[in-house]
Each structure stands twice: as structure tokens, then as C-alpha cells.
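User: Sequence recovery, please. Input:
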């Protein structure tokens, strides 16, 4: 694989951190954004908040100065504010939209400047199985993840001729600290719904992301790639 400059938002923990570690393992120049904390060893950590365009501009400027123009963008940063529709406040809906959708727009817009100049880019948006399957108590979250599909496909139509691809990776249940904290009976119930009968490891998601960024995936754009053990198939 050609070595590239990679930026992963929210790359200091969870799936984002695993993605950063896999890109580093493959020899790429990797930067991660974080509001607090540090990315993995070997990554450049830049402080940024995807809800703040000025902080993103400063983060991109630092990455460009130290590692070069961003060629692969993984828009991973996201939040949840789960509650049932009738109890969900405007603030709970809007906060999730501002991070998970508006934040992705801001970071993609900024990254596209360098990609257009280089006539190369890989834009990978981290969605979710619930973006197409739906999830009770997650009207805000699932709406933002569904919207990423339209975003990726519109980007593909705008920038595809410039050797820039845009795709959505849609993970299902992932074996993270969050799922590990669930009661055992709840974990067992979730696993019954998954044809594979288990949660994915963060590394399994990371390897799909790095493949989508590789030269081998150059002709894939506007796609939704599920990493969900069959949970959302048909959607």
C-alpha cells in the first residue's frame, strides 16, 4: 500500500484508536484529533472539537505542517444522548446532530481542500448499523448515521472524477468498554440477534477501514460497508 497521511477524528479511544493503531502498523503517517487525552504511540495528537470550525482549521494546519496534506480522512468522532422520543429534548437531539453530522461536514469540507489539490483522497465516514436498521431510544443518533449515506454519495458525485472516494463503514455491536459494562443477560440477548453470535473486535472494524483506504479499494465509492456479523443485512 502507498504510504499516506491519515487523519482520524476521535482517534484517542475506542474504535478510533484501533483504526489509528492499524494505520500506524501499516506504516502510514497518522494524526488523530482529541478533545482530551492522547492518541496511540506513533500518532500525532492534535487538539480539536468537531463542533468548532476554528479548532479544526488549526488542527489541519498542524497536521499539514508536520505530516503533509491529509490524504485519508476517517470521520469517527461521535456522541450518543439516548432516550425515548417522547422524552428527548431539543438539546439532546441538536447536540448529537451537531457532533455526528455537522461535525463530519466540517471536517470533510476542510479535508477536501487538500484532496482536490492532490487529486487524491479517501473519505471514510464511520456510521452504524442503526443508521439503516433503526434503534429505539436513538432517534437522534440513528438519524445522523443514516444521513452519512447521503453525504458520502453526494461527495462521490461531486468529487469522484478527482480520484476521491467517499464511503460509509457501518459497524454493529463492537467489543468495547461500553459493551463490556452491559449486564451479561443483556449482552446475551444482543448476541442472539446477531447471526455471527458474537460482538466484533475493534480490530476487525479497523482492518476494514484500512482496506477501504487502500489502493485495492480505489473503485469503491458511495458504498455502505457493514461490519455487523449480519445484524443489519437486507438494509
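Assistant: Recovered sequence (235 residues):
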Amino acid at each position: 500500500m502507498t504510504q499516506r497521511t491519515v487523519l482520524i477524528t476521535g482517534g484517542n479511544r475506542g474504535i478510533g484508536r484501533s483504526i489509528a493503531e492499524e494505520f500506524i502498523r501499516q506504516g502510514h503517517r497518522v494524526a488523530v484529533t482529541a478533545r482530551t487525552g492522547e492518541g496511540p504511540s506513533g500518532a500525532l495528537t492534535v487538539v480539536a472539537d468537531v463542533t468548532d470550525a476554528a479548532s479544526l482549521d488549526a488542527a489541519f494546519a498542524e497536521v499539514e505542517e508536520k505530516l503533509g496534506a491529509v490524504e485519508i480522512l476517517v470521520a469517527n468522532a461521535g456522541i450518543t444522548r439516548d432516550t425515548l422520543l417522547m422524552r428527548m429534548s431539543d438539546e439532546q437531539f441538536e447536540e448529537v446532530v451537531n457532533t455526528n453530522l455537522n461535525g463530519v461536514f466540517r471536517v470533510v469540507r476542510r479535508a477536501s481542500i487538500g484532496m482536490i489539490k492532490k487529486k487524491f483522497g479517501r473519505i471514510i465516514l464511520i456510521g452504524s448499523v442503526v443508521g439503516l436498521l433503526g434503534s429505539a431510544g436513538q432517534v437522534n443518533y440513528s438519524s445522523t448515521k443514516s444521513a452519512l449515506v447521503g453525504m458520502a454519495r453526494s461527495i462521490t458525485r461531486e468529487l469522484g472524477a478527482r480520484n476521491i472516494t467517499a464511503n460509509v463503514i457501518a459497524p454493529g455491536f463492537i467489543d468495547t468498554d461500553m459493551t463490556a459494562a452491559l449486564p451479561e443477560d443483556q449482552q446475551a440477548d444482543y448476541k442472539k440477534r446477531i447471526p455471527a453470535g458474537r460482538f466484533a473486535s475493534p480490530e476487525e472494524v479497523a482492518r476494514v477501514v484500512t482496506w477501504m483506504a487502500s489502493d485495492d479499494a480505489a473503485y469503491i465509492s458511495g458504498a455502505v460497508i457493514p461490519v455487523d456479523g449480519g445484524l443489519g443485512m437486507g438494509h
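The first strand starts at residue 5 and ends at 8.
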